[in-house]
Specification:
By secondary structure, the protein is mostly helical. The chain contains five helices and two strands, in the order H-H-H-E-H-H-E.
Length: 172
């Protein structure tokens, strides 16, 4: 819930300014700024990876796969929404928003790889698009035979049955 319903702050979507080195120079590192690697990661990405790392090996693999798929999907949705918000900060371009998304998706992909599980899911959809034309033919009398004939009833049943489609997605 903290991932899906996260409301970003102005600083969260302040790209590309967030990428500029703002940390103080550290003399022990040759004057180079030191910041944690994850300091520029979007908060939902941090939370997703933290949650997954805490759950990994503590719950059954099938349970982890289900939770991980849901967390990764929520994280991706959050990143997509936030990439659009990057544009609203006034200084970012459309390219900045796209780079924000690509950067975080690559990080997510790299960080979930060690979990060595399948992050795939199947989406089932019901397709009604073919039914419009069939119903028009039936109602305008363009179908073969009388509306009450056996042939017409068979046509109605076959033409007005919704189709289902399965799409397999791999989140890795």
């Amino acid at each position: 819930d903290e991932i899906f319903s996260y409301t970003p702050t102005r600083d969260d979507v302040d790209y590309p300014a967030k990428l500029s080195p703002t940390a103080q120079a550290n003399p022990s590192h040759g004057g180079a700024p030191t910041r944690p690697l994850y300091s520029t990661w979007y908060p939902t990405l941090q939370r997703t990876l933290m949650c997954l790392s805490k759950l990994y090996l503590t719950v059954d693999t099938r349970i982890f796969e289900g939770l991980a798929s849901e967390a990764v999907e929520s994280c991706i949705d959050s990143l997509v929404r936030s990439s659009r918000m990057v544009l609203s900060n006034g200084t970012a371009t459309q390219l900045d928003g796209q780079l924000f998304l690509v950067k975080h998706l690559v990080i997510l992909q790299e960080q979930i790889a060690p979990f060595d599980i399948s992050f795939s899911f199947t989406e089932k959809r019901v397709d009604f698009t073919h039914m419009k034309g069939a119903m028009q033919k039936i109602l305008t009398g363009q179908s073969q035979g009388s509306l009450f004939s056996l042939n017409a009833r068979t046509t109605i049943l076959t033409a007005t049955t919704p189709r289902t489609t399965d799409n397999q997605f791999e989140a890795r």
